[in-house]
Fold this sequence. Notes:
Layout: E1 3-6, H1 8-16, H2 23-30, E2 35-38, H3 40-51, H4 61-71, E3 74-76, H5 81-86, H6 97-109, E4 112-115, H7 118-123, E5 128-130
Parallel strand pairs: 1-2, 1-4, 2-3, 4-5
Amino acid sequence: MAGFLLDTHIWLWMSITPQRLSRTVMRRLENPRASLWVSPVSLFEAEAAHRRGRLEDIGNFSDWVNDSFERFQIRSADLTREVAMEARSYKLPHGDPADQMIVATARAYGLVLVTDDARIIESQAVATLPNG
Length: 132
């Protein structure tokens, strides 16, 4: 079974508002043989959203992250030298550095990126599982 890197919004939706995910995506992510991964970049983006008051319903951010990782058996796709070097090998059309690192992480780890970001999907820079 494939390994999946959850784009930041997909991880948030899965943890907070799972009804936003398509049945196809939920079925693939809930498969016990699937491995789920999150980049530290997504933690950084989620924490910034929490600090701005966009995720106030989750309570303590650290507790929420730990609970989410445990509940969904998520692994950390750490930023490595290989990820940083991979980020140099392609360009995304919108130039978002966070997306650049998330795509590089999926490529370096050989993971399928689960995303709803049409710009990433259309770029074909990485294998994706679109939420649609």
